[in-house]
Amino acid sequence: MFPKPLASLKPNTAAYESLPMVKPTGFREYDARWFFGEELNLMGVQAVGMGLGTLIGRMGVKREIVVGHDFRGYSASIKMALVTGLMAAGCKVRDIGLAMSPMAYFAQFELDVPCVAMVTASHNDNGWTGVKMGAQRPVTFGPDEMGALKKIVLEADFDLVGGGSYLFVEDFAQRYIRDLTNRPKVTRKLRVIAACGNGTAGAFAPQILEKLGVEVIPLDAELDHSFPRYNPNPEDMKMLHAMSDAVKEHGADVALGFDGDGDRCGVVDNHGEEIFADKIGVMLARDLCKVHGPSQFVVDVKSTGLFDADPELKRLGAKTDYWKTGHSYIKRRVRDLNALAGFEKSGHFFFNAPVGRGYDDGLVTAIAVIDMLDRNPTKSMAELYVEVPKTWGSPTMAPKCADEVKYEVVDRVVKRFEAMKAAGETVAGSPITSLVTVNGVRVGTPDGTWGLVRASSNKPELVVVVESPVSEQRMRDMFKAVDTVLRENPEVGAYNQTI
Q1: Buried b / exposed e across 407-428, counting CB within 10 Å, b at 16+?
Q2: Range of 414's domain?
């Protein structure tokens, strides 16, 4: 019998080396994240592998799985501990080695393997680790599967049937690179900054973009898991500002920034202006509708209201569904609605056939941006952006809030806004005309100004976003109103960044 995991153990003790530690809060809505050493030890990782293999078997899925790991100093050891657990539960493991998350998703198709477990903490700070998992390509686990996995692991309810095996897939990265670059080269002369934040994408992104026929200037592409300049996160203003400086220095046409595990892409235009990912989504939706005709799109509740309001998207016959934030949620919704694409404000983009295979891949997104520029040879990125109606939007802002209470706090905030609407109260000086509560609460006013509060799915934080199509002042008014409601809850701490 493998012991039941404990929520905490003291490091540098016999117990720490003899028992599994798995903090329950590490099981998030659609993946798993722990601070390694404090919330999870290697025996705990084994338990997660045993639990995942057990769950796969109980789902009636063939116990064959792709594994990969991102570029952090501890990720390879975590992956191998996970592998031992998977093998004990009877899984045939295909190890693709160092990889971006989309490479692991691609491997499910390329190797014809139903399941995936990618060891990555994405853009989280050093010290964090995690696993992105799936058993029904191209989608990854949602709350139901994560809840079942959590129960199996914490109760040590494992089916250790044995019979597992391990195979290392040599040079798999070249298969992924060929898949993305086996196409006509770009005809427009483009100079592109490939910003990697010293994360995993640095090993792959620059050469992929070069093979497309563009001039590539790598930025922080050297692998360095200490992340010496900033975390590889294209929502982080530090990374966006570095991309902006590089564009100005090199006279580039565009900067494309990739997060720690390569499934997201951020964009800075030829003037060095950061374009938030939801606005990039509007631009790509316009471009894709011109190529493929009227199309269905899915966006998350953090995204701009332009997906509904943009006159050009209306003219082109685009339809948009606003859905729950989270790569797993949007991925499933894109599949369920057979949408052409799904866009998240965080930079997770999902392209269905004929553009992609339905999963989030920062390089596929980068290629879509490059193709859009190639199809508009007389227009710069900035000129294409100017054609999108102006709105004033905030970056994603994250006030601290403990994992144990963040969902309760959001429930209180939802009820507060619902009570305000029922009582005819105003928000930011205007009536409340809409409340979207599919994921936290998105409160809207008659002039199109809105504010969102939701719980972060992978950090001890809340998420706040505001936008106004009227003015910067209206955006700031909405932020003040939303923050005032938030501050009624003493559990809410300081923001990571604000407007």
Answers
A1: eebbeebbebbeebbeeeeebb
A2: 392-496
Kindly state whether residues 373 and 404 are assigned to the same domain. no
Which of 138, 155, 174 is where one domain is finished? 174
* Other CB atoms within 10 Å distance of the CB of residue 351: 24
Domain CATH for 481: 3.30.310.50
- On whether residue 5 sits in a domain, the answer given is no
Distance (Å, whole) CA 44 – CA 55: 16
Pairing of strands 191-195, 450-455: unpaired
**Number of domains the chain is built from:** 3
| 182-231 residue pLDDT tens | 999 999 999 999 999 999 999 999 999 999 999 999 999 999 999 999 99
Per the CB < 8 A criterion, the answer to whether 453 and 464 are in contact is: yes
Q: Are residues 204 and 165 in the same domain?
A: no
Per the CB < 8 A criterion, the answer to whether 190 and 214 are in contact is yes
**Which tens digits make up the pLDDT trace of 306-362?**
998 899 999 999 999 999 988 889 999 999 999 999 999 889 999 999 999 999 999
- Spacing of C-alpha 121 from chain mean position: 11
51 domain-assigned: yes
What is the distance between the alpha carbons of residues 58 and 115, in angstroms, rounded to a whole number? 13
pLDDT digits 0-9 by tens, 138-151:
999 999 999 999 99
